[in-house]
What we know:
Number of strands: 23
Strand content: 35-45%
Radius of gyration: 20 Å
CATH topology of the largest domain: Glucose Permease (Domain IIA)
Distance between the termini: 30 Å
Organism: Paenibacillus profundus
Low-confidence stretches: 148-154
InterPro entries: Cell_wall_metabolism_enzyme (IPR050570), Dup_hybrid_motif (IPR011055), M23ase_b-sheet_dom (IPR016047), Mao_N_sf (IPR036582)
Bound molecules: zinc ion
Protein name: Peptidoglycan DD-metalloendopeptidase family protein
Domain M23ase beta-sheet core: 32-127
Oligomer: single chain
Amino acid sequence: MNTFDWSKYGFVRVTSPYGWRNDPFNGKKVCHTGVDVVKSHQAPIHAFAAGEVVHASMGAAGSGFGGFGNVVAIKDSNGHLQCYAHLDSIGVTVGQIVKEGQELGKQGTTGRSTGSHLHFEVRSKASPSFGFGHHIDPGHYLSTYFSAHTQSENKKECKTVPIRLNNQAFCEGFLEGSITYAPLRAISEQLGARVTWNGKEAAVNGTRMLGGKLINGRTYIPVRAFEEAIQVKVVWNGQEVNIIQ
Ligand SMILES: [Zn+2]
């Protein structure tokens, strides 16, 4: 999963990782498009990588940075945008070339934010709308950025995936990285499987279901886990999952 060590850059906590979570404002299942990391309020925020500053002001609604508060966006050597959001203040200007480690501003809670933190987001495109919607896993991206790995390894988008049972539309799952997650209980019950919970982990027909995620009070597990537990065939056609019993 996410192997990037944020503490090396002075962050004491990751308060919300990249990927699916409950929206802190409305409780709905949403993709958190960046990672939330915390030092302390007004602590200096430094560039993880060098590049050109392409945005350095309050993110206007509809610009690709609405709700981001004060945001600095840096176009890196891959043409990717590295975005530093909710800053208290900004210390760089558009057009400036920044070095790795250079101070960009101070940690803050401007924009749509529930407390002082850095929302760090990486987008695989820089336009239009500053590449809005093209977010990828920032920890994964940074951990490969300084190595010789190809950019294809940096793709880790998240999106919803329709799940069918025996060719019938049934529910929605989600894709994160290369793993499709599906709701544990709904699918198990529909397929007549027995779900047990020992207070720590779930099992289906006695098979432990590992690698789950809790979203909106529902447990989602990697859909492949059903193959072993319920003896079904999981078919992925690149767009949707079909679970065949
Ligand atoms: Zn965030």
